[in-house]
Design brief:
Helix 9 runs antiparallel to helix 10 and helix 10 packs across helix 12. With 322 residues, this protein is an alpha/beta fold. It has two domains: 225 residues, Spore Coat Polysaccharide Biosynthesis Protein SpsA, Chain A; 73 residues. The chain is globular and about 65 Å long. Strands 1, 2, 3, 4, 5, 6, 7, 8, 9 and 10 form a ten-stranded mixed β-sheet that branches. It is built from twelve helices and ten strands.
Length: 322
């Protein structure tokens, strides 16, 4: 538990407290067991710049809202809660972008209510990196994947990368970085959020990575700074494999429609892989009539995206051997 007072947290801040450098954005719904971990991770941050903590509760039916309220009362100049009077997610409202609209910071740090930060210098380190590399769009870092069990948290794996300071498109295609590590330049994030809203695209971690990388590279902090907690109750983790594949294909199709150049090319390759997996699954079930409907898409993305990508890769390999 954090025992620092509000005054102790802000004592090393430089600049105007009403003009935060970072807006921490946290969305929560029925996270009464977990939300304190998230808030404690925010409050333990040691920085030389001001930050604000925006927490949006989407009309939880448990004690989440009252827990958030108790923290906000103790830290009124830091925590700025938003309490919805009815659940908006069920009406198609995307939770996180609602906080972007009121964020004052030059940078936005993301963390959902069932995840949490583990490094008290996370924000300071990542903001220092973004200032040192002004052409980068966001800072990413490593995270521990933990599964919530009745007896406690079980470590599953640690998401790391290749250790390169600057992560370009090639790296982003190969390595996964979790949302709880993202610190993003606000102006660019708002542009991406607007595009996603206009095209009815859910702002997931995968969408963010592939949208943001089109604006510039990412800068990596090669340290574990957070925990990605799997509870089995999340929107994604609660889906079966078939539903996950369907949602993945829908997301990739939307990205394919709006991206250009190499970014669009890669989504075309992913669509081929997705349709191939779907076709195999249907054939395994002997659902031939349904399987046939996927053949035109498989041929299209194979002919115009997957095969050209393989040929380009082979050319590059041959050049390297010369």
């Amino acid at each position: 538990m954090i025992h620092k007072t509000e005054e102790e947290i802000i004592q090393n801040w430089n600049g105007n407290q009403n003009a935060p450098v970072v807006s921490i954005c946290c969305t929560t719904y029925n996270h009464e067991t977990y939300i304190s971990d998230a808030i404690e991770g925010f409050l333990m941050q040691e920085t030389d710049f001001p930050f604000e903590i925006l927490i949006r509760d989407d009309c939880s039916t448990d004690k989440t809202a009252s827990i958030v309220k108790s923290y906000a009362e103790k830290y009124p100049n830091l925590i700025k809660p938003v309490f919805e009077k009815e659940n908006t997610y069920s009406k198609g409202v995307r939770p996180m972008p609602q906080l972007f609209k009121i964020a004052k910071g030059k940078y936005i740090a993301l963390c959902e209510g069932d995840d949490y930060w583990t490094d008290s210098l996370k924000l300071q380190k990542q903001i220092d990196l973004l200032k040192s590399y002004p052409k980068t769009v966001m800072s990413i870092a490593y995270t521990d994947l933990l599964e919530q069990k009745a007896e406690g948290l079980k470590h599953i794996k640690t998401f790391t990368g290749n250790g390169k300071r600057i992560q370009g498109f090639d790296e982003i295609k190969k390595y996964y970085f979790h949302t709880s590590t993202y610190v993003i330049r606000t102006d660019i994030l708002k542009k991406v959020a607007d595009v996603c809203s206009d095209n009815n695209i859910r702002l997931s971690d995968t969408v963010l990575r592939f949208m943001l990388i089109a604006y510039g590279p990412f800068v990596l902090l090669p340290e574990v700074v957070s925990v990605y907690r799997v509870t089995g109750k999340g929107v994604w983790t609660s889906l079966d494999e078939s539903r996950r594949l369907q949602q993945h294909l829908s997301m990739v199709q939307k990205l394919f429609n709006i991206l250009e150049g190499e970014y669009k090319q890669y989504q075309g390759e992913l669509l081929f892989n997705g349709y191939k997996s779907t076709l195999k699954a249907l054939l395994k079930k002997r659902d031939l009539l349904h399987a046939i409907t996927y053949i035109p898409s498989l041929l299209f993305y194979g002919l115009f995206y997957k095969i050209p990508a393989k040929l380009d890769k082979k050319k590059t390999e041959n050049k390297d051997l010369q």
